[in-house]
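To fix ideas, we now present one chain and its tokenised fold:
***
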Amino acid sequence: MGSTSDKISGKANELAGQARQAVGKAIDDKEMQAKGAVQEAKGDAQQAKGNAKDAVKNIVDRA
């Protein structure tokens, strides 16, 4: 997966996780809130992976 697709997937997971947490909070469902937090963290990690790929590519391009 390329850096752009990692970032896009990560952002999608982050937003979906936030939405899941909000719904869980609204209906007082702790399990849904927890799953949303996990999904948001997964999205953050995917975005970080995409950023790392970009950083490595920039270093290689400058070499």
Observations:
- The chain has two helices and no strands.
- The mean pLDDT is 95.
- The longest helix spans residues 30-62.
